[in-house]
User: Fold this.
Amino acid sequence: MSGPASLSPAAHRLITSAVRDERVQQRYWAKVAKPQVPGYTCWPYIGSLHPKGHGRFWVGNVRTRRGPVDVCVIAHRFGFALAHGMETLDAVPVLAHACDEPSCQNPAHLIPSTWGENLEQWHRRRWSPGSPLRDTRGPGGRARAIRAALQNGEDLQSVLSAGRGVLDTNQLDLF
Ligand SMILES: [Zn+2]
Assistant:
């Protein structure tokens, strides 16, 4: 589900019906946490994570000549389709995170974008002190740390700030 062009028609049909299927919706929301941390409005994915930190959601399987093939989608794209419909998602080449939290499922944090725009934003925000993009654990490491914290009941606030480099941590003292 990296883009409409990469989906086979059968996979697209499967996802389209999954978006309308209440049982699949429940399965999806069971993997989305809504932590109560002041100032933090992200909804991290606590299911399977891509190495780069995006959530992966198993939708089902399609039959092919070589047998059934699993269809996994990027979780926040599925969440966007739940909020806005599959047709809207089909028209969106890239779904960027305004919050820069790769596993975030909050539809309010997802902005339709293009590859070029997304790259430009990334370069710009990469230099903002305290940005999740500067996390020393990398996007995948950060998403896995957040998931582990939510699963184990650790203090999320300290896990969120644990990836700050020396420069970011000392930023407030400089002024
Ligand atoms: Zn977010």
Remarks:
- The chain has eight helices and four strands.
- The pocket of zinc ion is lined by residues 42, 97, 99, 101, 104, 106, 109 (CB under 6 Å).
